[in-house]
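About this split. The held-out portion is used to measure sequence recovery: a designer receives only the C-alpha cells and must propose an amino acid at every position. Recovery is the fraction of positions where the proposal matches the reference. Here is one held-out target exactly as it appears in the evaluation file.
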C-alpha cells in the first residue's frame, strides 16, 4: 500500500534549506553530543519517526520511561508530522547529518540513492545473530531490499492480507454455500444480481462492487494464474503479467461479469473511499480487498442496525486453473534504517541492532502498542480494553511507529468478534498460497522516469476492455504502445537487474 507512490517520486536529491536538529555521534556510546556520559552509562539512541497523530507524546511520558528502563537505552525521539515526513527526510539526507535510526516510509528515489551511496548500513550480514531480526520473512525481506541488499528492517504487515468480503445473510437467503472456486464465484455473483438476495421483491442488488482502485482486478488475475506483475517466460527471463495468456483469460471474465451487470457500471469513476457504501447499504454482496475490510463492514452494518449480527463473512481466494493463489501485499510498511553518520562503528551498530531486536520481544511490542496497564488499558481475561482518556493516550500515540513486529505481531489483543477471528485465520492461511513478485526488489531507472505513463497505458486498456470499448486486438495495440513508450526498455533493464541479482 504506499511504497509504489514513493518509488514514483521524481526528485533524487533535495538541497538542504533547513537542517533538522539532530543529536549525533551519541549512539550506543553512553555519551551525549557534548561528550558527557549519559546517566548511569546508559546507551543513547536518536530515532527520527513520523507521527500520524496531532500531538507527540511528552518527553516524560511514562511509556517512554518504561521503554528506557526495559532496554537500558536513553531514547531520544525526533518526531515529524506524517504529512511533511518525506520532505524532512529528504532535507535530512541532503544535510549529511543523520540521526542514528530513521523510519523510512518507502523505497523513494532519495532513499535508494542514499543507500547505494553508503549513507545507511547494509544490515543483511548481521541479522542472523539476533533472535527476532533473524526471523525476517524471506519474501518480505526480498520485497523491501534494494539491489538485493537489506538497508532497513521492514515494519511487518500481514503478507497474505487479501480476501473476499461477502454478505453471509444473502448466501443464507438464497440457500447458497460460500463459493470456493471461480465457477461457484460467478454463480454467486449472478444469483446476488438476479435472485433478489435481500428478499425485498425489487431488482436493486448486484454481485461485486469495485471502484477505480486497481487492487480487486489485480487480485482476481492471480486467481486465473496470471503472475504477480512479473512472471517467468519459461527460459528464466521475466515478462510483464499483461503479456501472459492467463491475464487475458482474467480480462475476458471481467468483461463478462460487467456485460451481465454483475459489477457496478460506474466502477471506473467511483472514488475508492465510496467502495464500502453499496455493501453496507445492501446494494452489493461482494468486495475483493484486504480481508480486514470484513471486520470494518461488519462494524458499519452494526452501527446502522445493532441487531444486524452475522451479516458478513470473509473468504480466501477462489481456486482457479492453477489451484489456490493469492496476491500478497508487499508485507511491510516502511523500514527502520541505521545511518552511518550517526552510528559510526560496527560495535555501535551491533548495540543498535540489539536494541531493535529487543523491541520485537512480546513485552516491548505490548508496551509500544498497548501502553501501561491501568493507564492506557485494563486487562479483561486474555484481552485488553483500551482507555478513552485522551491525556493517557497521548503518552502512547505514535510509539508504535518504531515497531517491526518480527516474527509477528505479539501485542495484546482487544476482544475479537467472529469476523475478526476469521480474518486472522484467513490472513494466516494465505501465507501458504501467496504468489511473490520476483521483480519487487529490482530498482529500475526506466520505471522511475516513465512508470506512471507505462502503468496508465495498461490500466486504461484494461478498463476499456472490461467495459467493451475495445476488443482483444485493441488491447494488443495498447501493449504495443506500452512497448514503444519505454516498456521494451523497462523489460530489458529489469531482466538485466534480475540476472545480476540471481
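Reference sequence for scoring:
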Amino acid at each position: 500500500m504506499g511504497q509504489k507512490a514513493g518509488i514514483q517520486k521524481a526528485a533524487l536529491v533535495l538541497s538542504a534549506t533547513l537542517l533538522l536538529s539532530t543529536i549525533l555521534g551519541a549512539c550506543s556510546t553512553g555519551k551525549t553530543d557534548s561528550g558527557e556520559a549519559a546517566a548511569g552509562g546508559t546507551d543513547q539512541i536518536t530515532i527520527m519517526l513520523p507521527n500520524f497523530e496531532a500531538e507527540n507524546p511528552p518527553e516524560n511520558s511514562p511509556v517512554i520511561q518504561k521503554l528506557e528502563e526495559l532496554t537500558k537505552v536513553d531514547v531520544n525521539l525526533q518526531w515529524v508530522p506524517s504529512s511533511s515526513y518525506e520532505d524532512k527526510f529528504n532535507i535530512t539526507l541532503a544535510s549529511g547529518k543523520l540521526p542514528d535510526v530513521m523510519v523510512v516510509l518507502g523505497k523513494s528515489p532519495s532513499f535508494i540513492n542514499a543507500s547505494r551511496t553508503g549513507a545507511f548500513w547494509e544490515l543483511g550480514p548481521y541479522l542472523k545473530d539476533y533472535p527476532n531480526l533473524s526471523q525476517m520473512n524471506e519474501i518480505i525481506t526480498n520485497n523491501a531490499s534494494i539491489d538485493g541488499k537489506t538497508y532497513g528492517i521492514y515494519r511487518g504487515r500481514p503478507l497474505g492480507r487479501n480476501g473476499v468480503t461477502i454478505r453471509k445473510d444473502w448466501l443464507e437467503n438464497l440457500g447458497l454455500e460460500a463459493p470456493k472456486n471461480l465457477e461457484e464465484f460467478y454463480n454467486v455473483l449472478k444469483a446476488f444480481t438476479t435472485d433478489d438476495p435481500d428478499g425485498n421483491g425489487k431488482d436493486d442488488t448486484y454481485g461485486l462492487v469495485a471502484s477505480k482502485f486497481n487492487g480487486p482486478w489485480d487480485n482476481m488475475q492471480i486467481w486465473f494464474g496470471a503472475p504477480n506483475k512479473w512472471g517467468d517466460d519459461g527460459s528464466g527471463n521475466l515478462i510483464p503479467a499483461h503479456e501472459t495468456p492467463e491475464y487475458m483469460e482474467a480480462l475476458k471474465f471481467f468483461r463478462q461479469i460487467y456485460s451481465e451487470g454483475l459489477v457496478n457500471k460506474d466502477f471506473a469513476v467511483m472514488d475508492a473511499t465510496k467502495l464500502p457504501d453499496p455493501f453496507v447499504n445492501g446494494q452489493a454482496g461482494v468486495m475483493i480487498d484486504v480481508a480486514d475490510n470484513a471486520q470494518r463492514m461488519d462494524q458499519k452494518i452494526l452501527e446502522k442496525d445493532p441487531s444486524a449480527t452475522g451479516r458478513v463473512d470473509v473468504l480466501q481466494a477462489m481456486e482457479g486453473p492453477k489451484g489456490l493463489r493469492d496476491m500478497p501485499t508487499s508485507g511491510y510498511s516502511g523500514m527502520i534504517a541505521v545511518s552511518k553518520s550517526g552510528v559510526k562503528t560496527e560495535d555501535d551498530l551491533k548495540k543498535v541492532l540489539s536494541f531493535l531486536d529487543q523491541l520485537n520481544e512480546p513485552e516491548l511490542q505490548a508496551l509500544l502498542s498497548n501502553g501501561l496497564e491501568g493507564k492506557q488499558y485494563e486487562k479483561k481475561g486474555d484481552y485488553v480494553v483500551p482507555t478513552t482518556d485522551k491525556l493517557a493516550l497521548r503518552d502512547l500515540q505514535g510509539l508504535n511507529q518504531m515497531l517491526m513486529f518480527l516474527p509477528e505481531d505479539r501485542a495484546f489483543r482487544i476482544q475479537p468478534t467472529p469476523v475478526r477471528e476469521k480474518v486472522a485465520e484467513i490472513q494466516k492461511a494465505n501465507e501458504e498460497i501467496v504468489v511473490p513478485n520476483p521483480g519487487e526488489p529490482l530498482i529500475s531507472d526506466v520505471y522511475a522516469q516513465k512508470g506512471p505513463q507505462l502503468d496508465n497505458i495498461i490500466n486504461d486498456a484494461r478498463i476499456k476492455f472490461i467495459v467493451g470499448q475495445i476488443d482483444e486486438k485493441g488491447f494488443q495495440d495498447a501493449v504495443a504502445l506500452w512497448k514503444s513508450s519505454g516498456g521494451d526498455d523497462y523489460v530489458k533493464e529489469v531482466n538485466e537487474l534480475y540476472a545480476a541479482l540471481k
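Annotator remark: The CA atoms of residues 119 and 306 lie 54 Å apart.
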